[in-house]
From TrEMBL:
Top-level taxon of origin: Bacteria
One Pfam short name: BT4734-like_N
Annotated organism of origin: Bacteroides fragilis
Name of the protein described by the UniProt record: VirE N-domain protein
BT4734-like N-terminal domain boundaries: 54-173
């Protein structure tokens, strides 16, 4: 018999200042009514500041897994296979049938749970993930899929360690047979223009990179190689950025954002290695600008 998402173990915390926490079954957290009077009082308060004073003292849970010893993304021990997203009324004022939103969302087979948020002014939605090891990529695509439906979800929910405040809904939607969401966002590769500039050095680099891309040659097989290629291309200033992406993208570990950040860092702090080192590395792989 398939395990219910409600029986998943998650980290729970005694308020926002508790960074160590304990664990419990998700159902124990979601259906906890011990703080109902506090939640009702919170919902009656007129200002966000007043509501936050109560909210930060209520139990919290990390719906996406178990963390130890402290609640940090890098301390994830076990992913729950779930992501929890917020749909706030203030971010979705264009939705005219707000009162029907829960019912409409319940028609999606990937949604396992829908409840009022602690303020009562929004919803939180729990969705099982097909690829929990790629939490961020799945969230990014999920965000885009909701946008296509005209719904804005809080982008902060992409943080795997994000805490969910205890809430209460007299009629939560529960689907223990929800199917895993399979969407996965892949960052588009930068488009490289290989039109030659008339600058002798840049044209030689462009010719080498064109061949690297055409033949899928990875000259950045390990971190040291990647670093050296980056330093050499950083000697070209911003002109080297697109070429660093070309070289990096031949490796399976390539991530456009990380590559971009690395190049920016190398522009500031990288070793003073000339572009000649790039040509030497290319030569080791049988690549020269003369051959292209």
């Amino acid at each position: 018999m398939m395990k219910s998402f409600l029986d998943t173990e998650v980290s729970i915390y005694n308020g926002v200042r508790d960074v160590y926490g304990t664990t419990c079954k998700l159902r124990a957290f979601l259906f906890d009514k011990k703080h109902l009077s506090e939640i009702e009082r919170l919902r009656s308060l007129p200002t966000k500041e007043e509501r936050n004073e109560i909210k930060k003292k209520l139990p919290q849970a990390c719906i996406s897994g178990v963390f130890a010893p402290m609640r940090k993304a890098e301390n994830l021990i076990t992913h729950s296979g779930l992501v929890c997203v917020d749909i706030d009324r203030k971010d979705n004022e264009e939705i005219e049938n707000w009162g029907e939103l829960k019912h409409e969302l319940s028609k999606l087979p990937q949604i396992a749970y829908i409840s009022l948020s602690v303020s009562g002014n929004g919803y939180f939605v729990i969705i099982p993930l097909r690829y929990p090891d790629y939490h961020k990529q799945q969230f990014e695509q999920l965000k885009r899929d909701f946008e296509k439906m005209g719904i804005i979800i809080d982008r902060a929910c992409g943080d795997v360690s994000r805490m969910r405040c205890l809430s209460y809904d007299a009629e939560p939607y529960v689907n223990v047979e929800a199917i895993p969401y399979e969407g996965y966002y892949v960052e588009p590769l930068p488009i490289v223009n290989y039109q030659y500039s008339g600058d002798d050095v840049l044209d030689k680099v462009a010719k080498c990179c064109e061949r690297i891309e055409q033949h899928c040659i990875d000259i950045t097989g390990d971190y040291q190689s990647w670093f050296m290629v980056g330093c050499a291309l950083a000697s070209l200033g911003e002109n080297g950025r697109q070429f660093f992406h070309v070289c990096s993208s031949q490796n399976q570990a390539y991530k456009p954002n990380e590559c971009d950040k690395k190049f920016t860092n190398l522009l500031r702090t990288g070793k003073r290695i000339g572009v000649g080192s790039f040509f030497e590395i290319c030569k080791d792989y049988g690549i020269t600008f003369k051959d292209v």
